[in-house]
């Protein structure tokens, strides 16, 4: 582990007097490297509140990490292999719908449209699985460039406009004046904006409200997405960023979600030095807030881009 990790660890347990739980790269007496899940708790003096000593518990999770990596690699391989046949199905369905192979009747058109829509859902799932595996394996690329977040947000809003209009949602956007361009990876940032806004639109009933805003703070640009949708049950809020998790109250309403969107958003934001938080009340709506540092994202070499 680097020196910054241990500085933060020591500050938390010694200065802040709070317990910490984290994965730590360690070595056995024979020099063999292993991964441990460590919990370190400060024990305080009951009279003056100062730290008397620490209690540490360590669990070797090397095998679990190896199994997780193997599963992620398998998902990445399987998803990549699915892309080619799914692309072919999409192309041929489009050709048949356009009449390139001859005229089709109304019933045939309905069947082909259902095939096309089902194929698109599979393509979205495969892309989400590939993005997840690339994040977990660390093979994704970060290529920061000067980016106008207002322009990017407006472009994402345009993409969602048909869905906003179809559901007759009251949509409002607001942008702070003189927002500076910052160095972020535009593709990764677009994934964040798209997921948060599309979720708000998807999980807000007809006639509801959705708001998106960008504000300038001292050290960050803050993205806020607010809706009057179904909200997240309080008992499940601690699971909302987990991989493949979907809240009970939306499963029956939307069967097409992957449960990967917010997991991807959180992973991208945290790996880029930002923070994400939310407030939600079931039946009343949700607010997601993302802090993107003015210092921007750091470049990272890799072999694959997220799509």
Number of strands: 10
- How many domains is the backbone divided into? 3
Share of helical residues: 40-55%
Distance between the termini: 31 Å
| Strand-pairing-aware structural class | alpha+beta
Query: What's the helix count?
Result: 7
| CATH level-4 homologous superfamily of the largest domain | Histidine kinase-like ATPase, C-terminal domain
Assign an overall shape. globular
Radius of gyration, taken over Cα atoms and rounded to an integer in Å: 23 Å
CATH architecture of the largest domain: 2-Layer Sandwich
Task: Indicate the CATH topology of the largest domain.
Answer: Heat Shock Protein 90
Low-pLDDT runs: none
Question: Quick recap of the structure?
Answer:
The protein is of the alpha+beta class. The protein has seven helices and ten strands.
In words, what does this structure look like?
With 307 residues, the chain is of the alpha+beta class. It folds into three domains: 3-60, PAS domain (Beta-Lactamase), CATH 3.30.450.20; 72-137; 145-293, 2-Layer Sandwich (Heat Shock Protein 90), CATH 3.30.565.10. It is built from seven helices and ten strands. It has helices at residues 3-15, 62-97, 106-137, 149-166, 186-202, 248-251, 261-271; strands at residues 20-27, 33-44, 51-60, 145-147, 170-175, 182-184, 209-216, 220-227, 275-281, 285-293. Strands 5-7-8-10-9 form a five-stranded mixed beta sheet, with helices on one face. Strand 1 and strand 2 form a beta hairpin. Helix 3 (106-137) packs parallel to helix 7 (261-271) and helix 5 (186-202) packs antiparallel against helix 7. The radius of gyration is 23 Å and the shape is globular. The two termini are 31 Å apart. The model has no long low-confidence stretch (mean pLDDT 87).
